[in-house]
Design a protein that fits this description.
The chain is 36% helix and 23% strand. The protein binds 5-amino-5-deoxy-1-O-phosphono-D-mannitol. The site of 5-amino-5-deoxy-1-O-phosphono-D-mannitol (M6R) has 16 residues, from α8 and α16.
Length: 614
Amino acid sequence: MCGIVSYIGKKDPVPILIKGLRRLEYRGYDSAGLALLDGKSLNSVKKAGKVSELSDELSVSPIKGNCGIAHTRWATHGVPNDINAHPHLDKSGKIALVHNGIIENYDSIKKTLEKRGVVFSSDTDSEVLVQLISEIYHNDEGQLDFKDAVKAALQEVVGAYGIVAMCSDEPDSLFAARMGSPLVLGVGDNEFLFASDASPIIEYTRNVIYLDDGEFVEVKNSAYSISNIHTEEIVSKTITKIDLTIEEIEKGEFPHFMLKEIHDQKHSISDTLRGRLNLEDGTSMLGGINDYLPNILEASRIYITACGTSWHAGLIGKHLIEEYARVPVHVEYASEFRYRNAIIDANTILIAISQSGETADTLAAIKKSKELGALTLGICNVVGSSISRETDAGIFTHAGPEIGVASTKAFTAQVTVLIMLALKIGRKKGVSLHRGKELISSLKEIDTNVSKTLETIKLVRQVAKATCNADNYLYLGRGVNFPVALEGALKLKEISYIHAEGYPAAEMKHGPIALIDKDMPVVFLAPQDETFLKILSNIEEVKARGGIIITVTDEENDSLNSLSDYVLVTPKSHRYIFPITSSIILQLLAYELAQFRGCEIDQPRNLAKSVTVE
Ligand code: M6R
């Protein structure tokens, strides 16, 4: 939530910062702003709305400087307006700061500062930090330099932050710190960038340092030094080479990142599988967890924790792991799990699933489980992310950068990893070679099946056109396809603002059936498996009440055809491939519905891609 980018070097910072903000806009788009140091003068421009508003403003009233900090906001404290936009300046106008995170004790600090006469201009928690730095810096009778003042202020705040600050008394310097919110330092040739992720950096350098909690960076006169926030101790860090390409973070010929990412699934699932399938032995090869396999095999219980779409992948993972590995799996929202007294001990495995690897609640759940002795495994998409570094071991999904706020290819990659993990454990625990080979063979056909699934787009568009004025949508599935129903409903809510619910198909009779009338589209996940006839009865029940029936199946059937208003067919494959292919149809449906309703698909209202606040 919120994106930070800053630059110091020989180039004009403005285009670098604006481009960087555009890349980070997925993290929040309530307002944007930047501040530049031009020798000893500090100038800033801030605008409510998207980065384009800021860019327009700068073309009318340009500012210049030799280094700068910039921010795109997802509002927490204070409405999205120009004043609450970052950067925030202190009362002297000499210090500017951008902040991602939440200062939890801002209110008490604010009251103390107000008593000392500080007048605040915004409603944000972030302004409190810059005013606190200023108070310390200006009131120490010259005892502290700016760096020490920033460090001293950070001792007083409670909460999460990634910050970059600058001061007009230190014209060739940037100061940054991380506690709970991600921050990456790009180390170029006589130029340095800070950013919330590596995407604004890659055009200038491939050398990055992922900062850890409690680290403070000073960049001064073309050199950087990293120290502990609380002490003078210098921290030595390794430079990582990033291999992200520009093409991967741009939408190319597609009108939206979401559509591009839906189509990326033609290869992102097999990218996740690459080098990990062993057909001969009917198993998978997951190097990242090999050392911990004995602990995994002996575990008495597994918790899967995640948020949003990743939690839905976790629910599918429960079916898979219990089916193949025969170990109890509990799937928990990270935000609930971290605060309850779950039974966690040395025989517990915690699997944390996260696209971004930065979700605050998921990260906190990992830390808690580690403290209680559990082995923690991560399923993450972003290499170098906090969750991938905090967990004991893990398996990366290789879906590539996901920029659309609605998660698509990350979800199918997560399910793919969970299939491989379940099979890996299962084969060690006695699942037959035949069953293993059967699943591996189906995984090997995934690209073809995804491509065929994407051919449903024309029919999906017809469904969307016919139902785009609906106020509600219901998604129903059974067993492993119930989480697919939940995911379909979440996709629709996020990007089209149609209220949608996912339910186990048989549960419909226990309440939601009351909602059904001729205006209610109901999506049934109806593969030809052992529950097919039961689903058919559920479809009859909706038909009898006049609902609009949209069926997603893997084999056409006369009864289905006659009962359904629309039938969307994915290729027939293994029963555990259907959750992948059917969810792609539901992604397309959400996309097309949002298009017909004229919604902002990649940046839906109120949302941000990476939820780094609790
Ligand atoms: O990065 P994560 O996977 O940890 O994010 C979790 C959720 O915030 C995320 O899946 C969210 O629900 C998506 N916007 C759904 O499309």
